Amino acid sequence: MILSILNKFRHTLAGLVLVGMVVPANASSNADVCSPFQGGKVDSAVVQHMLDAASKGQLYQIQSDTSRIGFCIDSPIGLIEGDFKQFQGGFTMEQQAGDNQGKALFRVETGSVDVSNSFVRNMLEGESFLDSEHFPEMLFVSKGFYWVNENEAVLVGDLTIRDVTRTVGFHVEMIEQESEIGQDGQLVQVKASTRISRAAFGIISMSSVVSDDISLCMQVEAVRYSA
């Protein structure tokens, strides 16, 4: 049953593994796509998979100007909401029938927090929370994705914050899927969300007044990567 759904909605499935990922629009070569993940940050086999996919036209990129990674945290001053403005990555779609082993990578710059209050921004980027000076990035490497129905899936992978890695699952919802659009290829739009425990990543400061739960919410638009 699961296999038949994966076959029928293979293109949709590709969209589901792009959660929160962006490839710079001005990338000049396939290597540029994966450069943020080289140097031992990610298993070399995963990086090579991404490079091979790029050369075959099986790599997708997010449109940065229409994509968003947001977060929400409860606190005594109310709900703190904000975005991360700098993030990179990509995802692949396997072409073989029945193959659901697509890969997804994304990297978020922890020093790119955007909130309306400068004090809150400095607190979040500071040593007590993300500590962006010593831990400048968050990293996600996917493991797999599992269908709930034709339009929803769970994306599972390893999320690393402050050099602590935990397995997390994102609920992903297809918003829109269009057929081929000019030379850019297929357009895919999805939403994704999850809740994580900040204590699980070693962020325990102000635990008596700031919620341990953090909601991550994303909305992304992607088209097929063209080198």
Biggest sheet architecture: 8 strands, antiparallel, barrel
What is the arithmetic mean of pLDDT?
Answer: 76
Report the span from N to C terminus.
36 Å
The CATH superfamily is known as Lipid/polyisoprenoid-binding, YceI-like
- Unreliable runs: 1-29, 95-99
Total beta strands: 11
Proportion of helical residues: 10-25%
The value of Rg in angstroms is 17 Å
Q: Could you say what the CATH topology is called?
A: Lipocalin
Quickly give the structural class: alpha+beta
Q: Which sequence of SSEs, written as H and E, runs from N to C?
A: HHHHEEEEEEHEEEEE
- Number of continuous helical runs: 5
Strand order of the largest sheet: 1-4-5-7-8-9-10-11
Q: How many individual domains? A: 1
Task: Output the keywords.
8-stranded antiparallel barrel, 227 residues, 11 strands, alpha+beta
What does the model show?
- This protein is an alpha+beta fold.
- The chain has a single domain, classed as Lipid/polyisoprenoid-binding, YceI-like (Lipocalin, Beta Barrel).
- Helix content is 17%, strand content 41%.
- It contains five helices and eleven strands; from the N terminus they run ααααββββββαβββββ.
- An eight-stranded antiparallel beta barrel has the order 1-4-5-7-8-9-10-11.
- The protein is globular, with a radius of gyration of 17 Å.
- The termini are far apart.
- The N terminus is likely disordered.
